[in-house]
Structure to design on (771 residues):
């Protein structure tokens, strides 16, 4: 009887092994993944369960598929496969609410979304000093279906992968999962996916930092979260005669997206960084006959996308006297910020110079601001805009701290962002900007106006400095470096044999990230610093090796000396030694270093520690065969039990007694 | 030690020692006492000192029972309320769960 039963089972197993050419289980590489970030009150982002999430693959192409996953399909956990351009916050919310989705796989399609910004409609809402909902809608873009995705917490992992990988999953899906009848889950094998990306931190920043501290007393060597941290980059261009008064030219260094390691920030950050570097180069080149009465401080702030981490730290240092160059807050007279600057459509013809209405209404300040605005407007490329609320910018943070600081923010928009991809995966080449040479030409015009204005601001009263020359080729090259290939000639020129390892073929991510291992700096920050060193510094003649360059700093500690390859290294001149006043300072929110900082609206963002994400594609047995296997297990167990009892009972008959004469009585009563 | 081979008087002494030991917050001694001497206290024919063993066994059993209820109650309260207690809950935990409140 047993053998009769066994035959169909053996056949069934043989059938389960043949997966129609698809491997039973295949590990897939995870390119980019959504992770958990926390602030003072909430957790945001994604996390899988501790052991990973498993679900049946379903390709989502329309509202029918969303309903299928959400309610109409057989009751199980699903892995939704969706194109990046189709990603919507309400879809993800429905997935989360249905409790039937265990993960989302987003495909990189290279198609262009109409609008895509995962930031809040009011970026940095809670560190904004302007109250009132009406004014705070700068990032409210029509057609942006992923608005505020940054500020949501999803109970499943979301991975962002390339099309070749998705193709593999779709092939598997087409072979096994196309039959969508209610019974198919029971009868048929299914193509399934396992996603593993568990996050350690939970609840809020306070909780995860506390847990990290508590753990040091206990056994587990794990760690829960780290504050967001990176470096600010500064360079000082000194006045002709030693002076205290200083003008700041600022830009921001960072951007983000929903996924780790992916923060192109083309317009959000790169437009400002490249403009600042170009201005630094032009202003440093100016002949010494052009007298400057004030210092110019080039400032690149990091972590600005997360409630102004870098600028609030810089302001604190300036106020406490802990800032470089012996500068204090009293020395700063004005600040000009280069914010988002690409003009991509034909209808956009000019930039806007934003000033704060309250400051502009102060007669004394109006005089100063008018002088700046008149000069900016002279070329006709810039239009002034007196706002009730300044655009979200580092300058706004400065203005709040020092109301007497003449503050101008230059942008490509008047009311709402012209950039429809603010802080997202689409704020990149070729989505946000496709024609780099054309863009550099436009920026050249803008920077000429800004440069002339800055020269006038620092010139002695009554003098009229010669027009500034802006290097269009430099803008062009730098845009390529930041947006397409960080291993470009301009970046190759500023590294040396040690720092060259940060160069790579793809652009660097501009995400602020967390404190790197000591002695290292994130790629984008390091390259920006080195570029600023190159463009704001002076090449020292007759120094032909790194040792000699380092020795110069020991002789003159007032200045810094950096050894780099230079534009054309030759065996006789392997590099150049640059004398400069550039520096990097820590951009870490003061909230994590002082106790009573709650009322100052300092950034409280932290990032969770995670286990290395993994993903595997496999064929899940049908529910029927799973039950069959279980039932078979029971049958085998019961049969063998029965058999042993029978054999035991009949042991005397079955086994021959080897020594029949010496048989003692059984010691155990059965 | 095989208690089956012990003298009855020794058993009385031992069960008393276990009961007294259990008074020092050692509920497992009570539990062991109650199980070990249950047969001697209730199932065997009466012998001198059985009443003493019986009283030790009953007291130990009640004590161990109360301990059990207290520990289960605390465990349930802790498991349910720990996330709400915040810092206090974390301080009480030897192993803090990852990724959840």
């Amino acid at each position: 009887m047993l053998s009769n039963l066994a035959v169909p089972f053996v056949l069934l197993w043989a059938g389960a092994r043949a997966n129609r050419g698809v491997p039973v289980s295949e590990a897939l590489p995870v390119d980019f993944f959504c992770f958990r970030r926390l602030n003072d009150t909430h957790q945001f982002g994604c996390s899988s369960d501790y052991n990973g999430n498993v679900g049946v693959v379903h390709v989502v192409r329309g509202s029918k598929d969303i309903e299928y996953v959400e309610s109409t399909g057989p009751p199980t956990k699903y892995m939704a496969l969706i194109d990046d351009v189709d990603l919507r916050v309400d879809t993800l919310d429905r997935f989360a609410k249905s409790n039937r989705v265990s993960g989302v796989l987003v495909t990189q399609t290279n198609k262009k979304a109409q609008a895509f910004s995962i930031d809040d409609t009011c970026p940095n809402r809670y560190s904004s000093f302007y109250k009132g909902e009406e004014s705070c809608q700068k990032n409210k873009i029509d057609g942006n279906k992923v608005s505020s995705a940054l500020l949501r917490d999803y109970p499943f992992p979301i991975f962002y992968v390339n099309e070749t990988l998705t193709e593999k999953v779709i092939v598997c899906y087409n072979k096994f999962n196309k039959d969508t009848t209610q019974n198919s889950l029971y009868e048929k094998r299914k193509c399934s996916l396992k996603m593993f990306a568990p996050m350690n931190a939970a609840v809020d920043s306070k909780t995860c930092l506390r847990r990290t501290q508590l753990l040091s007393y206990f056994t587990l060597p794990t760690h829960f979260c780290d504050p967001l941290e990176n470096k600010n980059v500064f360079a000082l261009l000194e006045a002709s005669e030693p002076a205290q008064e200083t003008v700041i030219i600022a830009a921001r260094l960072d951007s983000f997206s929903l996924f780790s390691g992916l923060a192109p920030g083309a317009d959000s950050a790169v437009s400002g960084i490249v403009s600042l570097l170009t201005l630094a180069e032009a202003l440093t080149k100016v002949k010494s006959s052009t007298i400057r009465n004030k210092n110019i401080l080039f400032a690149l702030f990091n972590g600005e996308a997360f409630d102004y981490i870098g600028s609030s730290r810089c302001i604190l240092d300036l106020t406490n006297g802990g800032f470089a160059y012996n500068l204090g807050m009293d020395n700063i007279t004005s600040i000009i910020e280069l914010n988002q600057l690409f003009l991509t459509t034909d209808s956009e013809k000019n930039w806007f110079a934003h000033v704060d209405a309250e400051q502009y209404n102060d007669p004394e300040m109006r005089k100063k601001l008018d002088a700046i605005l008149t000069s900016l407007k002279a070329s006709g490329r810039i239009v002034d805009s007196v706002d009730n609320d300044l655009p979200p910018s580092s300058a706004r943070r400065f203005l709040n701290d020092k109301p007497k600081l003449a503050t101008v923010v230059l942008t490509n928009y008047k009311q709402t962002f012209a950039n429809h991809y603010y802080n997202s995966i689409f704020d990149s080449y070729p989505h946000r900007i496709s024609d780099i040479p054309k863009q550099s030409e436009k920026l050249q015009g803008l920077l000429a106006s800004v440069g002339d204005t800055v020269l006038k601001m620092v010139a002695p009263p009554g003098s009229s400095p010669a027009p500034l020359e802006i290097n269009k080729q430099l803008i062009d090259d730098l845009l390529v470096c930041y947006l397409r290939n960080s291993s470009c000639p301009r970046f190759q020129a500023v590294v040396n044999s040690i720092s060259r390892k940060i160069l790579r073929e793809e652009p660097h991510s501009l995400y602020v990230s967390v404190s790197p291992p000591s002695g290292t700096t994130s790629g984008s920050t390091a390259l920006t610093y080195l570029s600023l060193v190159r463009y704001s510094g002076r090449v020292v003649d007759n120094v032909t090796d790194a040792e000699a360059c380092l020795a110069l700093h020991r002789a003159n500690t007032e200045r810094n000396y950096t050894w780099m390859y230079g534009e054309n290294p030759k065996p006789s001149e392997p590099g150049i030694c640059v004398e400069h006043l550039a520096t990097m300072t820590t951009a870490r929110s003061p909230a994590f270093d002082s106790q009573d900082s709650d009322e100052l609206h300092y950034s409280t963002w932290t990032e969770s520690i995670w286990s290395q994400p993994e993903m595997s594609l496999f064929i899940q047995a049908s529910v029927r065969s799973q039950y069959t296997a279980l039932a078979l297990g029971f049958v085998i167990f019961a049969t063998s039990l029965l058999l042993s009892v029978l054999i035991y009972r009949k042991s005397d008959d079955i086994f021959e007694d080897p020594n029949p004469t010496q048989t003692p009585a059984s010691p155990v009563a059965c | 030690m095989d208690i089956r081979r012990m003298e009855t008087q020794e058993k009385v002494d031992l069960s008393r020692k276990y009961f007294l030991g259990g008074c020092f917050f050692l509920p497992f001694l009570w539990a062991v006492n109650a199980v070990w001497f249950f047969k001697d206290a209730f199932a065997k024919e009466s012998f001198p000192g059985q009443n003493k063993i019986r009283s030790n066994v009953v007291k130990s059993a009640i004590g161990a029972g109360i301990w059990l209820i207290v520990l289960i109650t605390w465990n349930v309260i802790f498991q349910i309320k720990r996330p709400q207690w915040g810092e206090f809950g974390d301080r009480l935990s030897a192993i803090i769960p990852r990724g959840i409140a």
Observations:
- Chain A touches chain B through 20 residues (CB under 8 Å).
